[in-house]
Amino acid sequence: MTQPRLITPDMSGCWLAGSSNRSADELNHAVILIALEYGMPQSEDDARIMAGLEWEGSWLVDGPDAQAIYEIADDALQYLQSLAPDGYVFYFDDGFYLSAVCDTESYEPQFDECPHAERNCPNRERGYGA
Question: How many domains are there within the chain?
Answer without folding.
Answer: 1
